[in-house]
Each structure stands twice: as C-alpha cells, then as structure tokens.
Design a protein that fits this description.
The chain is an alpha/beta fold. The chain has twelve helices and 19 strands. Helix 4 crosses helix 7.
C-alpha cells in the first residue's frame, strides 16, 4: 500500500475502534491490524476522523460593496489546517443574470486554486421561468442539487414567498434541496430605518434590528410552504430558540425539515456587540449572536436530532478597512465572520469536552450528515473501504490558544481570540495526499477539485 495510518483510534459516526488504515492512490483500500505501506503515519494516541465537511462557506464572494477576504487559495488552505477536507460554497446569482453565468464566475475563481475538494450550492436571487428551468440542469447535469434562498437582505438577495414556493416545487420534483436563510427581511428593513433615524448607529443595533422572533416567524412560514409544496427544506445557520422550536414542530409532524447551526451561535453571545472601539463589528453577522439561553436551546436541538449539521458560515472580512465601512452606520458593516479553520477545535472543546455531544455525534454533525444530505456520501463523510482517503489525524491532548496571529484565514481577527482549545488536527489527508503534516502545510493549490454531487435523498 502507498500509505498506512497506523495505531490510531478510528472514530466514525457509529463506531470507535483501533485499527490501521491502508491507502492506495486516492482511496481507502483496507482497514485492519498490522497493515504496512511504503509510507506510514504513526497515529498512536491520536484519533482518526473522516475529513470534515463544511457545507456553508462564502469564499471570495462579492457582498455589500466589497468581497469576503479569503480567496480560494487562502480559504481552502485555512480549512485544511483546521481539519476540513471539503467545502460546499455558495454561488450567488446576480440579479438579471443566469444561474449558468454565476456558476462560470465561481468556477473562474475556484479552478486551480483549491487545496481541498469543493462543491457548490446555487444561491438564487432572481427567480423566474428561465432560472426555474435552469434548476433542472443544475441538479441533473452540473452536480449542484442544492439551492439557497434568502428571506433576508431586502432589496438585494431577498426572495418573496411566491418565488420561494416555485423553487420548492421545482426542487421537490427533481430531487433538489432548498436551503433557506430564515429571517424576515421586510421587518428588519423597517427596524433598521427606524434605528438609524434615531441615530442609533453602533454595531449593537445590528442585533436590535433583527430580533429572534423574526427568525422564528420566517422558519414557520417556510416550513408551512414546504409542507404545501411537498418538498424538503433545510434551514441554514439557526441561532435561536424560536427557530429550533419551529423545526421541531415541523419534524414532529413528519415533515422532511432539516437544520444546521454554527459554532458562533453555540459559543458566543450578544454581549460581544458591546465591546468598545467598534469591536462589536467583528461579530456583525446575520442572524446575529443571541443569548446564552438560545445557546442551550441549540445544544438541546442537536441532542434531539432537530439540527443535523454544523457548518461555519465562513464569510470573513478584515476589521481594518472592511468592517470599518460601517463605522457610522451598522447597516453598512459587511455581514459575516471567519470560522472555516476553527470549527473542529471549537466544537471539540465546547461540544465534546463539555459533554454536549459524544465523539460519534461530533463526526456525524461535522462530516457524515453533511455528506449524506448534500450528495457526497459514501465517497466522503466516513472511513470505509472505497471511500476517498480524506482523513484527519487529531491530537486530543494538543492545547492551542486560538489567535488570528497563528491562524491562516485571510483576515485580521478571529471571534475566538484567546480561547484555549484542547484537541487539534495535526495531519490532514485529501484523497490520499497529505495536505497538512504535523501542523505544517504539505499540500498544494490546485489539488482540490470540483465534486459533482448526487441529488438529495432524505436523511
Ligand atoms: Zn451564509
């Protein structure tokens, strides 16, 4: 065999056991004891996970008058350092443009630049007869079976209920999955205008302008429409009790409703917006950070199975020069924060070590379920003979103080600055190639390739 990972503890969504993993070319070809290969990695004392999959990233995305600051090169490299071996990034259609034109634009930026494999979701901002027809091509020919719509960002990205409903029907018919940013853009727009008229311009008013009840309302509305259209629905980045209650209620009725949340909503709260010297802008994202009470609600929703996926919503901007665009107006602060590199470290420390989730659940939420829901399984999302050799060797004893200085994301801050994590990825393989070795870069840009994904099947 070309490469054998020896003596580690393999952890999948269902099992935990000691064995060696044999790799030939890009695939896992053997799992067992006493394997040997021309190159061997000693994983004694290490956990060996399937490569983690981040199904919610915004790399090099034009947004709010600027671009998210990670390029395909820097973003996928940072992802690899953090143990992520596959991202599914959001293409955003421009108003009046075709889905194909948007796909071409994203391909131009990504091709030849990624360190790890990637797929695309199609963000739809202009729903008409032509783009509805194009959805079929995306699912059946392009390997892009998932479509994101927004109930937020009135005047730019926002969909209306009738467009959303038509997209649900189309996805339901052709094996696609609609993903929704659930907030009520109309009311947020109204509140934003009122706050600004009262000269309430600081970052904290970003959170005030979009209360959690509006997220709950959007979830309820969307779930009702999905029920009527007989289509599955995946709600992205849930942040609050109202949202997960709506999902719970829908699932109790037997509807194919799914949800994700992100490390920031599980570990950070709205107090952050009051940090002095405009520092609150670092946490301006949508939905905003909520209360500690909401964090507990999200953990319980994970435990109950109402949330199936953890992603990052990685959408980085520099504090200097980009976040500062909203110095005098919170509505002009680019929405988003970095997280592509820190997900596994934060989730292991805050989730596994705090006993919110088991090791198996950790793998399920961050690798196996994302792969199953987004048409990548069993090529990715598990450690099995025949699967891609996307593997993370993880040192459960390694302590790291998270800091923008030591991370590889192309931005000047991390929301987890100063957090001490225990447990960190040390060696990372992408399709059998070592991309991170003992914490050092060993991969090369252009190795990562576009993965055509399968149609949606219910989890
Ligand atoms: Zn997002």
């Amino acid at each position: 065999m070309d490469l054998v990972i020896k003596n580690g503890t393999i952890v999948t969504a269902t099992d935990m056991y000691e064995a060696d993993i044999g790799i030939e070319g890009e695939k896992i070809v053997a799992i067992g004891k006493g394997l040997s290969g021309s190159k061997e990695i000693d994983a004694n004392g290490m956990m060996v996970f399937p490569g983690f999959i981040d199904v919610h990233t915004h790399i090099e995305m034009p947004f709010m008058g600027t671009y998210s600051s990670d390029t395909w090169e820097t973003g996928t490299r940072a992802a690899a350092f953090g143990g992520t071996t596959c991202v599914v990034d959001f293409i955003i259609q421009s108003k009046g443009g075709s889905l194909q034109a948007a796909l071409d634009e994203w391909n131009k930026r990504a091709t030849g630049n990624a360190y790890i494999d990637y797929g695309f979701h199609m963000g739809m901002t202009d729903i008409n007869d032509d783009t509805l027809k194009e959805m079929e091509t995306m699912i059946l020919e392009e390997g892009i079976p998932s479509f994101k719509l927004f109930f937020a960002y009135k005047g730019s990205l926002m969909a209306e209920d009738d467009g959303f409903y038509k997209a649900l029907e189309k996805a339901g018919e052709f094996g696609g999955l609609i993903m929704l940013h659930a907030e009520n853009g109309h009311i947020i727009d109204l509140f934003t205008k009122r706050l600004l008229a009262e000269k309430k311009t600081e970052p904290m008013y970003h959170a005030v302008s979009r209360p959690s009840i509006l997220e709950g309302e959007a979830c309820q509305r969307a779930i009702a429409l999905a029920d009527l259209a007989e289509a599955p629905l995946y709600i992205v980045h849930n942040s609050c009790l109202e949202a997960v209650e709506a999902i719970h209620e829908g699932r109790e009725r037997g509807l194919p409703i799914y949800g994700e949340t992100c490390p920031q909503y599980l570990t950070l709260d709205e107090e952050r917006y009051t940090e002095p010297d405009f520092n609150g802008a670092k946490y301006v994202m949508s939905p905003p950070l909520r209360s500690e009470f909401d964090q507990d609600a999200l953990w319980f929703a994970i435990e109950r199975g109402d949330l199936q996926v953890i992603s990052t919503d990685h959408c980085p901007f520099f504090f200097k020069g980009q976040k500062e665009m909203g110095k005098d107006n919170f509505a002009k602060i680019p929405n988003g924060a970095p997280g592509i590199e820190t997900r596994m470290a934060v989730m292991y420390t805050a989730g596994v070590l705090e006993d919110w989730i088991t090791l198996n659940k950790f793998v399920e939420l961050n690798s196996t379920n994302p792969a199953k829901m987004f048409g990548l399984f069993p090529q990715k999302g598990t450690i099995a003979v025949g699967s891609d050799a996307d593997i993370v060797v993880f040192d459960p004893e390694k302590e790291v103080t998270l800091s923008a200085k030591n991370l590889h994301q192309n931005t000047d801050y991390t929301p987890w600055e100063g957090m001490i994590v225990k447990g960190y990825p040390v060696t990372v393989l992408s399709r059998g190639k070592i991309v991170i070795e003992d914490g050092k870069l060993a991969g090369e840009k252009g190795w990562g390739k576009f993965i055509k994904r399968d149609r949606f099947y219910p989890l």
